[in-house]
Specification:
Strand content: 15-25%
Number of helices: 13
Radius of gyration: 20 Å
Largest sheet: 5 strands, mixed
Shape: globular
Order of helices and strands: HHEHEHEEHHEHHHHHEHEHEEE
Distance between the termini: 32 Å
């Protein structure tokens, strides 16, 4: 290892002590934040390689954890100073995650809403203002298309509705009515479709987290249409990419980011830190 890379593995103070030092960073992140991360990477002074992983790892935490660990293990240690993980705890997929040779840098977040709203405090404030809220961003509006693209290719993707409420991010991808009817008959298919959509009754507001750079995507019109169909009140709120900016720019305040040294593991915590590395007395057992 060269001196620059050694400096990165000592402690967080070394990162902060080199504000003008260009770093080589590897980002592994959920594709739900692909547009926002790409936008901020274009403004970072560092050399950053991006790898986006499929939406839905938190649907099956055991499989999601294994897939994420596999991607971490595949990163070339001699090429980067650190690996930046673009995930929150996300249904505990980060529990036990480790890196053999490179430090991991992880935002202290329960889920990706913190990335789009800029801080855990703002996320809590927005949630408490209306708990029955379904959140929309460009990535969430593209969930159904991305999942179809991965399984059936671009032609099938172009025929899929962008109504994310038919493919909620916290559920596995749902079969279409035609697929259910072919397997169970039309009457049973209608019952199953109605059953899978009952979750939407617990929401009263659809909130678009909006960014100026995404103006060309017509997110406001698309979200308003979905909310009208669902009987939800539509609102929009400016997003805040400050947390992602600091993450990608190497400004890793320990209150906002966890630095996991090589061979240490990530643990959830039952406090405001959200997560810790192995050896921390506040960490939960896996």
């Amino acid at each position: 290892m060269n001196k620059g890379r050694l400096a990165c593995t000592r402690n967080i103070g070394d990162f902060q002590a080199m504000p003008n030092s260009k770093q080589s960073l590897k980002v592994l992140a959920c594709e739900v934040a692909q547009r926002e991360i790409c936008h901020m990477v274009s403004r970072s002074r560092h050399l950053i390689d991006l790898e986006f992983l499929p939406i839905g790892y938190h649907d099956d935490p055991k499989s999601g954890h294994s897939n994420l660990q596999l991607r971490i293990d595949s990163v070339e240690s001699g090429r980067y100073d650190a690996i930046l993980l673009g995930y929150g705890l996300c249904n505990r997929i980060l529990a036990g995650i480790t890196s053999r040779e490179l430090p991991l840098v992880i935002p202290r977040a329960h889920d990706c809403l913190t990335f789009f709203l800029g801080s855990r405090q703002r996320q809590a404030e927005v949630h408490h203002s209306c708990p029955g809220t379904f959140y929309f961003t460009s990535g969430w509006l593209e969930v159904a298309q991305r999942r179809t693209l991965a399984s059936k290719g671009p032609e099938a993707m172009r025929k899929v509705s962008d109504d994310v409420t038919t493919q909620p991010t916290f559920l596995p991808a749902q079969p279409t009515f035609e697929e259910l009817a072919a397997k169970y008959g039309e009457d049973n298919a209608r019952y199953l479709v109605d059953l899978t959509q009952q979750w939407s009754q617990s929401y009263e507001r659809g909130l678009l987290i909006d960014f100026d750079f995404a103006a060309s995507l017509d997110l406001c019109e698309r979200t308003a249409s979905i909310c009208k169909q669902r009987g939800w009140r539509f609102e929009r709120m400016p997003g805040d990419l400050g947390l992602l900016e600091r993450w990608l720019d190497g400004r890793w305040d320990p209150k906002e980011f966890l630095i996991v040294q090589p061979s240490e593991k990530v643990y959830p915590t039952a406090d405001d830190d959200v997560m810790a590395s192995s050896g921390n007395r506040n960490a939960e057992s896996l």
